[in-house]
Amino acid sequence: MFFQQLFNGITIGATYSLVAVGFSIVYSVLELVNFAHGSFYVLAGYLVLTMYSFMALPYPVAILASLIVTGLFGAAMNKFLLEPIRKKTSSGESVMTATLGVSTFILNLIMVLYGSETKPFPNPMNLGKFYIGSVIMKWNQVIIAIAAIIMIIVMSIIIYKTKIGSGMRAIAQDVSAAKLMGVNTELVITFAFFSGILCAAIAGILVAMYYGSVDTTMYLGVSMKTFAAALLGGIGSLPGAALGGIIIGVLEAFVAGYISADWKDCIAFIVLILVLLFRPSGLFGHKEIKKV
Predict the structure, then answer these.
(1) Which of 15, 38, 4, 52 is nearest to 206 (CA)?
(2) Which residues contact 89 (CB under 8 A, 6 or more apart)?
(3) 152-155, long-range: CB < 8 A, 24+ apart
(4) Torsions phi, psi of 137, nearest 5?
(5) Is the pLDDT of residue 102 over 90?
(6) Up-side HSE of residue 151: CA atoms within 13 Å toward CB?
(7) Residue pLDDT, tens place only, 35-94
């Protein structure tokens, strides 16, 4: 029982980690809480459903096309909505409110087109299961966890080992200094949105495959769990976000297995409250020192 729940928790926790890493990429560059992040997570699943079930595209093509469209949508949101707002005002609240508007638009559009009912998600790659001792492992779960972990590693390499990643870190330190150093700040910020939302899109598809369904209520749950994971790890920290997602996934699995599945969605709220009370800087965060 213990190892079964641990495996289940790591599997779903890896997807939370991926969403939280995407959220942290954008936050680390702009210190922006992107309220639309979870809506792109939901959108990607519905796009796969549309392209595979209604447009009859091959399953891998439907997934790839969904990821490209969702990522470009996120980049376009920054380029044509958030960037003009940033140029007109220095108020971060205005940009944050705009992302909330985008989120509302996406979720309402989905409900208009598909209704509010849960939709079955196609998964033709049901590869069966195998056993390690008493632990039942589905191949789909293994693939989901590996895919999420690989994507986290790829994004970490991009952020810490590439030129555009250096630009993102430079903007995070001081956007004005980054401009003087020749960094194309708006291009780098747009890439940050593309890559961050791509992480959310991949996780959304993986979770839809995991549960075999999609619905718009996924938004609220994943948004809270993403923020809790990012805060637990240290908001803006990619390694912290990855670890935070795994911790929340494992805690959820143990609560569902040993207490009740009805309580598992409360874990993110409990973690959020405890972190804010006892360690606001998170596991990998740094305390902010204010000079007087």
Answers:
(1) 15
(2) none
(3) 152/14, 152/17, 152/18, 152/21, 152/238, 152/242, 155/21, 155/22, 155/25, 155/195, 155/199, 155/238
(4) -120, 120
(5) yes
(6) 27
(7) 999 999 999 999 999 999 999 999 999 999 999 999 999 999 999 999 999 988 877 889
CB 42 within 8 Å of CB 107: yes
Bridge partners of 213? Answer: 120
State whether the Cα torsion 198-201-206-209 is positive or negative. negative
Tell me the C-alpha distance between 188 and 39, whole Å: 22
**CB-based contact 214:46 (threshold 8 Å):** yes
Q: Counting beta carbons within 10 angstroms of the beta carbon of residue 180, is it exposed (0 to 12), middle (13 to 18) or buried (19 or more)?
A: exposed
Output phi, psi for 131, to 5 deg: -120, 140
Structural domain boundaries of the chain? 7-217
Pairing mode of beta strands 129-132, 135-138: antiparallel
Q: Are 218 and 258 spatial neighbours (Cβ–Cβ below 8 Å)? A: no
Give the position of tokens 């632990």: 135
Query: Which tens digits make up the pLDDT trace of 212-254?
Result: 999 999 998 899 999 999 999 998 889 999 999 999 999 999 9
Given a cut of 80, is residue 100 above it in pLDDT? yes
Rounded to whole angstroms, how far apart are CA atoms 230 and 228? Answer: 6
